[in-house]
Amino acid sequence: MTIVVGHLATPEGQEALSTAVTEARERKAPLVVVTSGKRPVDECRAELDELASGAAAGVDLRVEEGTGDLAEDLIRTATSTGAELIVIGLRRRSPVGKLILGAGAQRILVEAPCPVLAVKV
């Protein structure tokens, strides 16, 4: 069983990644980090190498390049790896904004083949 998380250079993405590392360590599960597809894996590699040698030291970490549709990529990766958890980041919203969840987050919550942990920043 694995834990799947997207790699985004946003506060929500960084919080999701940090939480996913913690979950992977506690569950002794491999962590699959899916890049957003908007930045080549090589550009993300330095950040992810730093993560692997720092906060994620000792975690079985694998990186997969996304296609640009992060929701689809996370769902597909979770399905193909038999993931036990997907971790996503959400930003705080105004009372009106709470009526509408982001389309990507909503799609992941509805279509995910496993539980989804939503981390709010």
Would you mind describing this structure in some detail?
This protein is α/β, with parallel strands linked by helices and 121 residues long. It has helices spanning 11-27, 41-53, 70-81, 103-111, and strands spanning 3-7, 31-35, 61-64, 85-90, 116-120. Helix 3 runs parallel beside helix 4 (103-111). Mean pLDDT is 84; it is low at 95-100. Belongs to the universal stress protein A family. It comes from Promicromonospora kroppenstedtii. This is Universal stress protein. Residues 2-120 form the UspA domain.
What is the topological layout?
Layout: E1 3-7, H1 11-27, E2 31-35, H2 41-53, E3 61-64, H3 70-81, E4 85-90, H4 103-111, E5 116-120
Parallel strand pairs: 1-2, 1-4, 2-3, 4-5
